[in-house]
Amino acid sequence: QLQLVESGGGLVQPGGSLRLSCAGSGFTLDTYAIGWFRQAPGKGREGVSCITGRTGNTIYADSVKGRFTISKDNAKNTVYLQMSSLKPEDTAVYYCAASLLGLFGRCSLSSAQFGSWGQGTQVTVSS
């Protein structure tokens, strides 16, 4: 059974950095695209970034371009989200999710394209 577990969230000051991890089990990363999404209190779920497991193609939301970097380690079946220059508006629960778009070398920031989700990890940016 496909499972995703996020880790690495926490409290950080504005301008700081965090690295989130998404560890997968029950599937091979090569056949999926992995996306990172976030949801702030009272707001909808927002696509942040995505990477294809086989080709490593990446996409980013405009709000995080130049500050966040997505990467993968196929040997560990794990995807990372390195977040730098964090802002208070980055505060949210961050989720990773898997999509079979990866079979076609494609990625998406639409949550509707992702069928398997982790439980989420809280990121709070505050002084």
Total number of strands: 11
What coarse outline follows from CA principal-axis ratios?
globular
Rg (CA only): 13 Å
The ordered H/E elements are: EEEEEEEEEEE
Give the % helix.
under 10%
Strand content: over 45%
First-residue to last-residue Cα separation: 40 Å
Task: State the helix count.
Answer: 0
| Structural class label | mainly beta
The low-pLDDT segments are: none
**Mind describing the biggest β-sheet?**
7 strands, mixed
Averaged pLDDT: 96
Explain this structure.
The protein is 0% helix and 48% strand. It has no helices and eleven strands. The protein has strands spanning 3-7, 10-12, 18-25, 33-39, 45-52, 58-60, 68-73, 78-83, 92-99, 116-117, 121-125. Strands 2, 4, 5, 6, 9, 10 and 11 form a seven-stranded mixed beta sheet that branches. Strands 1-3-8-7 form a four-stranded antiparallel beta sheet, with no helix packed on it. Strand 5 (45-52) and strand 6 form a beta hairpin. The model has no long low-confidence stretch (mean pLDDT 96).
Main features:
single chain, 127 residues, mainly beta, 7-stranded mixed beta sheet, 4-stranded antiparallel beta sheet, 11 strands, 0% helix
Short description:
This protein is mainly β and 127 residues long.
